């Protein structure tokens, strides 16, 4: 006896069998016809494409760059070969398939190349930004971090490596920025505590907290460390503000006095201080109102802003005056101490490194970019250092001491910058000489050739930014430029300043020492490249450059004056 459903089941089984047979027949017919080798090539090209896509994902190519390629591949996969009655049509289909897969492989390679170049450029820009930040601020504890990043950048190959490196460098940049902000906040907290010294408030707890903050600030390394400290200082500052309400009369008078002093400084510099006099009257009006916590906070906020603005104007004028003095001294001394070149009959200033092509333009840029109190303080410090270095150049020029003996100006430079316990490579622009010191003791001395007047070596105290042995220098100028040079193999190179400034061997020269930074007839006969100064580098004989390279390291400082 059969089940009432047995007939339906048999029909379903029969239908499935027919469907399977039909599908198998379709597969059989689709596999027939055409050249098997052509079909195999199409499948191989697709397999290579899939391998490329997998590799692109693995090395970190952004998904949006690969998505259009994946969609195109899916469109290709959705097509079917024609019926196998015409071999030429089938072969053409698979040939077109292979061609499309090959084109997509090219697009994947372009995405890999483009994303790698873009990520590499971003990483290089981050490294340059970090380098400038380290040069502008006192952040010596990040120098080794910078060197680590530079090594990572050199070793990186794939987009994900460059992206990770950029992210890490951005975190470091933010860390340095927050460190700078916290330094200012600690100064503000210290200033507030100083203002409250003559009040009846018990400041012992706040003073202990402030000392602890300073210790934490010195120990902090990561962004999280500085963020936690920032929150701590914020709470302590609020505590100090509340305590200040009790000493409102004393605090207000001290701050009014400070603003008054800033106004007096502005007037002494010949600046219009009328706007600050108006602000002073507004601050005095706040004091006259009924004292409350709200009034105190408004008063502190307003007068602190007024004092800070006035300080910035005072420092800005000081920086402007100092910069003008620097340029005037450079021009005046340079005009009075010209090198009269018998080779071309021209006269050249001996302090070109301090003029616009050298450190002069850097100081101008620093000043124009300085809009905050810390940056202005950094500009003034850099201007004072540049003036100090210039005065040492002037004194060194008048010193008859032989180039291979200790110079008084060298020791002054070492003591001024606290380099007594360091190894330094010191370059005298006036003497065209290099002297290597270890712990204030002279080790060796050499004659060198520094930059020509148009591209002078940059005076200052510089860390080692790179060490290359060997390398190839490639001109950043196009052929036809007076500063172009062919690709040049270099045996020993120590980078001392961004922009391609190196200490390196110059095997194409024979002559070194005084006057070789100006046009001259070099004994090598290579007048095109040896008959003038360098492009801002410090050139040396090959064996001497080898000695300097092998007897220095990443911690050596390059001192040029």
UniProtKB/TrEMBL annotation:
It comes from Ktedonosporobacter rubrisoli. This is L,D-transpeptidase. GO terms for biological process: cell wall organization; peptidoglycan-protein cross-linking; regulation of cell shape. Pathway: Cell wall biogenesis; peptidoglycan biosynthesis. Residues 423-561 form the L,D-TPase catalytic domain. Keywords: Cell shape, Cell wall biogenesis/degradation, Peptidoglycan synthesis, Signal, Transferase. CDD domains: YkuD_like. GO terms for molecular function: peptidoglycan L,D-transpeptidase activity; transferase activity. The active site is at residues 504, 537. Residues 1-31 form the signal peptide. InterPro entries: LD-transpeptidase, LD_TPept_cat_dom, Transpep_catalytic_dom. One of its GO terms (cellular component) is extracellular region.
């Amino acid at each position: 006896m059969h089940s009432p459903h047995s007939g339906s089941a048999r029909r379903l089984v029969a239908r499935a069998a027919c469907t399977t047979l039909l599908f198998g027949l379709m597969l059989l017919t689709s596999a027939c016809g055409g050249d098997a080798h052509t079909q195999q090539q199409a499948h191989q090209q697709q397999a290579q494409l899939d391998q490329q896509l997998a590799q692109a994902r693995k090395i970190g190519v952004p998904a949006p760059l690969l998505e259009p390629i994946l969609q195109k591949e899916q469109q290709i996969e959705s097509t079917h070969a024609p019926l196998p009655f015409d071999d030429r049509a089938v072969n053409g289909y698979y040939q077109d398939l292979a061609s499309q897969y090959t084109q997509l492989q090219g697009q994947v390679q372009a995405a890999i190349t483009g994303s790698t170049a873009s990520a590499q450029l971003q990483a290089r820009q981050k490294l340059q930004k970090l380098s400038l930040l380290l040069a502008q601020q006192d952040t010596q504890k990040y120098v080794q971090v910078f060197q680590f990043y530079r090594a990572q950048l050199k070793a990186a190959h794939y987009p994900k490596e460059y992206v990770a490196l950029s992210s890490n460098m951005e975190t470091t940049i933010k860390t340095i920025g927050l460190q700078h902000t916290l330094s200012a906040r600690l100064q503000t907290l210290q200033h507030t505590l100083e203002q409250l010294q003559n009040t009846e408030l018990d400041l012992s707890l706040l003073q202990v907290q402030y000392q602890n903050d300073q210790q934490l600030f010195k120990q902090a390394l990561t962004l999280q460390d500085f963020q936690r400290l920032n929150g701590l200082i914020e709470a302590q500052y609020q505590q100090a503000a509340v305590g200040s309400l009790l000493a409102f009369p004393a605090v207000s008078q001290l701050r009014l006095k400070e603003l008054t002093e800033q106004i007096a400084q502005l007037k002494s510099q010949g600046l219009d201080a009328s706007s600050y006099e108006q602000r002073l009257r507004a601050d005095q009006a706040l004091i006259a109102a009924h004292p409350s916590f709200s009034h105190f906070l408004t008063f502190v906020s307003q007068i602190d802003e007024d004092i800070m603005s006035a300080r910035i104007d005072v420092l800005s004028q000081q920086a402007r005056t100092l910069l003008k003095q620097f340029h005037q001294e450079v021009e005046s001394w340079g005009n009075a101490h010209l090198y009269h070149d018998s080779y071309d009959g021209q006269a050249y200033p001996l302090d070109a490194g301090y003029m616009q092509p050298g450190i002069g333009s850097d100081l101008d840029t620093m000043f124009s970019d300085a809009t905050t109190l810390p940056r202005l303080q950094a500009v003034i410090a850099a201007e004072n250092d540049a003036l100090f270095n210039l005065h040492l150049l002037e004194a060194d020029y008048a010193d008859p001491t032989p180039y291979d003996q200790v110079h008084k100006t060298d020791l002054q430079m070492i003591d001024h910058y606290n380099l007594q316990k360091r190894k330094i490579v010191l370059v005298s622009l006036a003497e065209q000489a290099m002297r290597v010191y270890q712990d204030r003791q002279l080790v060796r001395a050499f004659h060198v050739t520094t930059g020509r007047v148009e591209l002078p070596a940059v005076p200052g105290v510089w860390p080692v930014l790179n060490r290359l042995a060997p390398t190839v220098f490639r001109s950043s100028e196009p052929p036809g430029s007076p500063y172009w040079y062919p690709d040049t193999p270099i045996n020993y190179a120590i980078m001392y300043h961004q922009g391609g400034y190196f200490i390196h061997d110059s095997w194409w020269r024979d002559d070194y020492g005084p006057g070789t930074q100006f046009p001259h007839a070099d004994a090598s006969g290579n007048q095109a490249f040896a008959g003038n100064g360098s492009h801002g580098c410090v050139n040396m004989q090959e064996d001497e450059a080898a000695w300097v390279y092998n007897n220095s390291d990443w911690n050596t400082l390059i001192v040029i004056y």
